[in-house]
Specification:
122 residues
Length: 122
């Protein structure tokens, strides 16, 4: 096991020690203190695992960026991009589109919707 696997456990243990110490100093009942310890275990367990994954991802990104820079490449701050270029339609292509076919989307003003429905049923 790596040391990063123990970080959430250490965070939970530290939070439990602080919770128990504060509970004993403030004379909190045993049952209430155990309920608080359960909540602390769950919350800080999730928190610790998220922090660990975030730190590991940052370390891995740093290693990859250093490796790419050593090879002479460039690292973009935004990561990979999907670059799609859609050519604009000219007037002739726009007029050639059949908007009245049954399988296409037709834009209708909601106020004129009743006229459109009545004309299709005839």
């Amino acid at each position: 096991m790596r040391i990063s696997d123990f970080i959430p456990i250490l965070i939970v243990i530290t939070a439990l020690i602080v919770t128990v110490t504060l509970g004993i100093c403030n004379n909190i009942d045993f049952s209430e203190l155990m309920i608080r310890c359960m909540a602390v275990t769950i919350v800080f367990g999730i928190f610790g695992s998220l922090i660990t994954k975030t730190v590991l991802n940052l370390i891995e990104y740093y290693r990859v960026s250093i490796h790419i820079q050593d090879k002479g490449g460039t690292v973009s701050a935004t990561g990979s991009k999907l670059d799609i270029k859609v050519p604009p339609l000219d007037d002739e292509a726009l007029e050639a589109i059949d908007y009245d076919s049954d399988n296409e989307f037709i834009e209708v003003n909601p106020a004129d919707l009743s006229k459109y429905i009545n004309s299709n049923t005839d």
